[in-house]
Every structure is written in C-alpha cells, then in structure tokens.
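Example record

One chain of 141 residues, shown exactly as stored in the release files.
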Amino acid sequence: MQLPIKAHYATLAMLALAERSESAEPVPARLIASEQRIPMQFLGQILQQLRAAGLIASTRGANGGFVLAKQPDQVSVAQVVDAVCPAAASTPMTTDREVPHAAAVGEVWEQLQARQRALLSDVKLSDLLQRASVASPMFYI
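Predicted structure tokens for this chain:
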C-alpha cells in the first residue's frame, strides 16, 4: 500500500532535523526545502502539522527555524505519517461482503495494513539516519 507523497516529504523533513538534533540550532524551512527538494509551500503546511502534533518546535526571527521536539530514537515513522496523513492510518479497507471472495480478499488487505502499521511503528528516525549513513559512505581523496 502506497502512502501519500506528503508522508514521504514529512519523513524527509524530520530526517533533516534529526540529522542536526545534537546541535539544537533551529533549521530554517528554506534550507530543509532546498536540501530535501520539497516544494516550499508544501513544506510549510507539513511543518505546521508536525508542530501541531508535538514532533517539532519552532522559533521565529532571523535565526529561527525548526528543531525536533524529541530525540530521533523516540520518533517513529508512524508518528510522522499520523501527523500529516491521519486518514492514512485509520482508513479501513471496505469490501462488499455480498461479492464472492470479497471477505477473503478483505482479510488480506487488513493484514497488509496491520503489517505496514507495525513496520512504520518499529522504524525510528534514528534507524533511518543509520541506514542513510551506511547507504552513502564518505570518501576522502
């Protein structure tokens, strides 16, 4: 099952903040947008939703920006998805039980949705940062 692009962008934005979480310095939205190639208007809406969910905090002003509200190992991908796409996590698969085989197919979709939810709940931002560092090692010349 495919998640909306909004969930993808939100996860990328959260990873950009998680990457800088130790410095505790606010990251400007324009920097996140350019690094992660997220349209600025779309990112603004995403950041508002993440802030409303308590996943990030913001500061205004010339040196303002966004920081994680929790440590990267305390934020799951499921929390990020829920913050920006609440319907994606709770939309049950509907099937017409009058249609032959619909119940059996419906059960498979429900199992798939449950497994997807479990995976997203198990994966933390810190896990993704670790995967990213392994996937793109630094080379020095």
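Notes: The chain has one domain: 5-133.
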